[in-house]
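Case study B.
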Amino acid sequence: MRIPRNAAPKLPHYPLTGYSRRCVGLLPLLLTALSLSACTTARVNHFKEFAHAGTSYVNAANVAITEAGNAAIDADSIVLREARAQLAAAREGMTQPVLVQTIKQDSQELARRITTHNELLKERLQLLGDIQVHMLLMRNYFVALGALAQSDEPSSIGEAAKGTVNALGKVSDRIKNAKVGQLPIANFVEPVVTIVVAQFQRAALEKELNTRATMIANELDLQKAAMEAIASDMRDNLMLIQAQEEQNIVLNPYRLAVGPLPTNWSDKRKEFLKKNQVLQSVEAAATAANSLKMSFIALVENRLGSTDIEALLQDINRILTLIEAIRGSQ
Amino acid sequence: MAPSQIRDQTLTSLREARKALMSFEWLTALEDQPPAKKRESALALFQVQEVLLRLGNTELAEIRDKLKENENELEQGTNDLKRALENLQNVEKVLEAVNGVLNVVVRIITLLV
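Model:
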């Protein structure tokens, strides 16, 4: 059965005044703007979270790099001391003329070694310092990104716009009395302007992302490589330092067959064995750099979730725990 | 094998060697060795540590140089972000200025009426 074209029920017709027409016309715009608002806020928040995580990473990594430098010096000192002690042990039982000659030879050897090691360590500290300086630039970038993402300009601009409408209301009753639904127009101007400005904010953030995504991805890859190299070296140096501690505090007193053990020997042994677990956190520095890269990819692909950021913050916390433990043991 | 892989493997081997030359077992075993062996061990330890430092520095220098290549663009990005923030702040300034003018206009109109 065909339905006649004119079969639709007639709707009651309410004539609209000029103001009412304009106000009703605003409603779809408002609804669209409000739905855009949720997306914009979520997206801007992604940038905010990423910037916050990036800044936290740089701060933690910088402290870790300082500790890596300290560990390199401490480990080198242990090696130098040990090698020197072995040279001294090698001279035991030598006859006087040979001993004099060997001491002279060893002194020259030790002088040459200490000079070389000092130079190499100075170079190491310079390199680590250069990476820290670079990380400050990276920190500035994250801070600027965070400042733009966290800016409350959209809301303050919205308030200013509301003020403008209120001031206009003093000039004209028509503006003052204009309403959208039951509410004065000034109440709507603020959120709409806020949303529009937030779109500008988001657009600026997206533009930055589009312009420099490749460079930032490359930068984060290099950060990962740097932190892997630093962490790997640091882990071995810390292990060496701990092994030395174990020898001096736990093994040597115990293997001396005569005399009683120091009264705090058991406590020191327990302390040492527990400290070993902290070493596992060294990897956190490299893992955090990798998590930052993963978070960045998620940001680019607009799927950055709280779990990405949480994982990254956990790695950052592990770096801080490690540093606290290292500093606490000194 | 890529040069970086060779270096990584060498670094790992050297770290193992250093650990062995510093180990409790090695030092205990060395006690009974003739002076020449003790001397040899001391010099090997010096050498291993030196090469470790050199290789580590080379690796870090390479990464540092690559990081430096990004610095101009990183600074450019920071400046662009600051400018975008300033632009947002300028919108507010304009609106504040408009408000100021409107308030004056309102006062004049009130006086005229």
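Chain B touches chain A through 60 residues (CB under 8 Å). The remaining cases will be described in the next quarterly update.
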